Structure formats: C-alpha cells, structure tokens
Amino acid sequence: MVPCMKTHVTILMILVVGAGCVTTQQRRSEQASRERDIEALRADVYRIKEQTGSASSGYEQVYADIERLRREQSDGDKELADRLDKLELRLREQDAALDAMHKQIVSELSRKMAAVIKSQAPASGSGYGREHVVKTGQTLSEIASAYGVTVKTLVRANGLKDANSIRVGQKIFIPE
Q1: Do 23 and 121 form a contact (C-beta atoms < 8 A)?
Q2: Model confidence pTM above 0.70
Q3: Direct distance between the N- and C-terminal alpha carbons of the chain, in angstroms, rounded to an integer
C-alpha cells in the first residue's frame, strides 16, 4: 500500500513541476497564488505520506504481535484463538478503510493539481493582450517597438527559441 502511494505522489509531483509558466505581467499575482497552492499541495502530500507511513508501521506491528501470540498460545486455548481471529478481522477492515481513504486522498489531490496545472496555461488566448500576424520583412524587434513591449517579453510570451525564430504569417501574442 505505501509503495503504491509513493508512486502516485511522485507522478503527481512530476506533473506539478513539469507544468508551463505564465509570463505576462498582469498574471504575476495569479502565478504567485498558484505557487502558494502548489506549496500547500506539497505540504499536504508530505503530511499524508507521514501519516500513512506511521499507520502502516502500526498495522505491521499489530499483525506481528498477533502472529507471536498465536505461536505462544496453548493448543487448548480456543477462547484466545477466537479473540485473535476477531482482532485480525478488525485490523483487516481498518486496513481496507485506510486504503480507501488513501485512494480518495490521491483522487482529490490529483483533481486539485490538475486544476493548478490547467490554470498555468500560456497567456496567449487568455484575453490579456492582442495578436499580431507577422508580415514580410518584419522583425520581432520592430513588432515589440510598435506595441511598446520588449523583445524578451514577446519571446517568453510566445515560447520562442530566440528573437530570430519568427516567420511570415505567424501569429504573435502581444501581452498588455
């Protein structure tokens, strides 16, 4: 149960870390809010891992105690054997409940992380700027100057490799 949770948590963390960045100035406060949300989710994941690990080690110890008592019991002690069977059944029910809770927590964290990742979509199309279609002979520097933004801003907002990687007909997002 615990290795499965570690795998889920690791996958979720990779998704959060691999999410895209929002680069427009108007969205900086939103980005800071999302970063706080991600940190809160990381803290939740850490807390859940600690709690699950503690519960699992507690169950393992109880199961070991039951086995030890079974070995120590005398052949004629039917009452003790029945009590141990009932205790083991209750532990198995608790273990199943813990596993169901784990699945619910992973599902909720997945949903929250998906919402955070979705909110980190690139700014183009978010309505916080305009679009420019590159014409023959235009450079990114000329476009930036025409709209009063920096070349660096356009490179980041459009995910360009460099300022020279634009082509005629390409749509360039101009953040406001």
Answers
A1: no
A2: no
A3: 49
166: Cα separation from own chain's centroid: 34
Q: Which residue has the higher pLDDT, 137 or 63?
A: 137
Give the angle subtended at the CA of 46 by the CAs of 4 and 42, to the nearest 5°: 105
Answer whether residue 126 shows pLDDT above 60: no
The CATH number of domain 2-119, selected from 3.30.160, 1.10.3470, 1.10.760, 1.20.81: 1.20.81
Give the alpha-carbon dihedral of 81, 61, 47, 89, to 10 degrees: -10
Lowest mean pLDDT among 60-64, 65-69, 70-74, 81-85: 70-74
In CATH terms, the superfamily for domain 129-175 is LysM domain (3.10.350.10)
Side-chain-side CA neighbours of 85 within 13 Å: the count stands at 6
